[in-house]
Design brief:
By secondary structure, the protein is an alpha/beta fold. Helix content is 33%, strand content 25%. The strands form five sheets. It has a six-stranded mixed β-sheet, with helices on both faces. A six-stranded mixed β-sheet has the order 18-19-20-15-21-22, sandwiched between helices. It has a four-stranded antiparallel β-sheet with strand order 2-1-4-5, with helices on one face.
Length: 499
């Protein structure tokens, strides 16, 4: 049977760096095929060649047996290859409907038929059970909602091949589940789907086949029913991984910080929780449940109207992130590129950004102190970089996230809050970050993890607090079952007392 899409011996180099070396891949009709590998494995380069973003140096591409060479994204879409990249490409000042049908709007005598445009967009949105209006402006949407619009836009182009690059990185579990259901329907209708993701739990729920790349080379292809997550991890990293999550704390430490009755308009109300020394506290909930907003309020980055925070028996008065840093509280934000890093500046500058006083001389900043600090943190966190003067934006996702953590840890905090700490990074980097967080807790620090990945929350946390609609619905300790977390995520806050 002729494959829907076949790649033979693709090679691509950027200067002296070889991104792909004789890579191969086969996608069948009615198949969801996962492409996995660590950052730098060649996945992004492959899909950019298929999408017409990059030219190949060598190799051949066949679509339904016919050799193709897409010169640009428009040509690739014309051939029936539609790609949703991790970095979204929506027009922020346009409506949802306008974005879905951009350059494909229904017209009459050169004028856009707006009612038909919005009707068609509405049909696609309803098919995905998306609670969005076609006339909503994209700039007013959440990151998760924008991701869904991007996917609906690709689906509406009726692609024969749909390529998805980390499509659920900004979605919580229920939203990701709706996407999986949609992709299953698309597959049944004849679409071939190339699914690039670091989330092995999703891959083993969704994919028919899994192909592993490592260091720009093809390693293996396995049918999902004939392999295991451990086998795939071994193929990805080239070594044995005995345990993804480090061992949990054997006993809880004393109270470090107590949050009492935090409230802010309709975002959250009556939030009270305790952060303890030596433990990792996980905050679970749907997107918009209030988890991040409460932590941002504690850090002085977001607002609150009432409530107090008490640390070591002393009431805090934090009005800004600078005040939180003085109190030894650090926060690693969800969006590392927009909020966590200065992408165009060096690793040295980024690591020292929260330690200006410590890196200063008598009058001016001390470049020697900045350099020593950066070198120490790069070594301590095993950040893979040729020189600390390299721009942070040039690093892989996993190493960017490590720089964010290096900046936080360089300030020597007592409390470390990390929001979506492993979003969009590979399994090897995830394991290293999990180990860093556990090591910080074992040395007496207190860690708060906000995550939309249930497996991460359950596997990493010693204690889990669940949010819904701006309130806490429950707290779980000990052996935590996924169903127990999900039940609390969907529990109405008023039911808490009856649970």
């Amino acid at each position: 049977m002729t494959p829907l899409l076949e790649v033979r011996d693709l090679t691509k180099a950027f200067g002296s760096t070889i991104a792909l070396r004789r890579a191969r891949f086969v996608l069948q009709r009615n198949e969801i095929h996962a492409l996995v590998g660590e950052n730098g494995a060649g996945k992004s380069t492959l899909i950019k060649i298929l999408s017409g973003v990059h030219d190949r140096d060598e190799g051949r591409i066949f679509l339904e047996g016919k050799e193709i060479a897409p010169a640009n994204p428009r040509e690739a879409r014309g051939l029936g290859i539609s790609t949703v990249f991790q970095e979204l490409s929506l027009c922020q000042n346009m409506t949802v409907a306008e974005n879905i049908f951009v350059n494909r709007e229904p017209t009459l005598f050169g004028l856009v038929r707006r009612k038909e445009l919005e009707r068609s967009a509405g049909e696609y949105l309803r098919s995905f059970s998306v609670q969005l209006r076609p006339d909503d402006i994209v700039s007013n949407l959440t990151v998760a909602q924008r991701q869904i619009v991007e996917i609906v836009k690709a689906v509406s182009a009726k692609a024969r091949v749909l390529i998805l690059d980390e499509p659920t990185s900004s979605l919580d579990d229920p939203e990701a589940q709706r996407l999986i259901e949609l992709l299953t329907t698309l597959k049944q209708n004849g679409t071939g789907i190339l699914y690039v993701s670091h989330k092995l739990n999703e891959i083993f729920q969704l994919a028919d086949a899994i192909t592993v790349f490592r260091d720009g080379e093809y390693i293996t292809t396995k049918r999902r029913t004939e392999t295991t997550p451990d086998d795939i991890i071994r193929s990805m990293v080239g070594r044995e991984i005995s345990q993804v999550y480090p061992q949990k704390a054997t006993r809880a430490g004393g109270e470090k910080l107590v949050v009492k009755d935090f409230s802010y308009r309709k975002k959250f109300s009556g939030i009270s929780l305790t952060i303890r020394k030596g433990e990792i506290l996980g905050l679970a909930g749907l997107t918009g449940a209030g988890r991040s907003e409460v932590m941002q309020a504690l850090f002085g980055y977001g607002a609150k109207e009432s409530g107090e925070a008490v640390m070591d028996g002393r009431r805090l008065s934090i009005e800004s992130p600078a005040g939180a840093i003085r109190e030894k509280i650090m926060y690693a934000p969800e969006d590392r590129k927009e909020q966590g890093l200065f992408l165009e500046h060096s690793i040295t500058m980024n690591v020292g950004a929260a330690c200006l006083r410590e890196c200063s001389g008598k009058v001016l900043m001390s470049s020697a102190k900045e350099t020593d600090l950066a070198k120490h943190m790069v070594e301590a966190l095993s950040i893979k970089v040729g020189t600390i003067e390299k721009e942070a934006g040039s690093l892989s996702g996993g190493n960017q996230q490590k720089v964010v953590l290096a900046k936080c840890l360089a300030a020597r905090p007592d409390i470390l809050i990390v929001d979506e700490p492993t979003r969009g990074i590979d399994i090897g980097s995830k394991i290293e970050i999990y180990s860093l967080l556990r090591d910080f807790a074992e040395r007496g620090g207190a860690v708060v993890v906000v995550s939309s990945e249930l497996s991460e929350i359950i596997g990493l946390s010693d204690r889990v607090i669940v949010f819904r609609a701006g309130k806490i619905t429950g707290e779980l300790t000990g052996t935590i079952a996924e169903k127990a977390v999900v039940d609390l995520m969907f529990m109405h806050p008023e039911e808490k007392g009856a649970a």
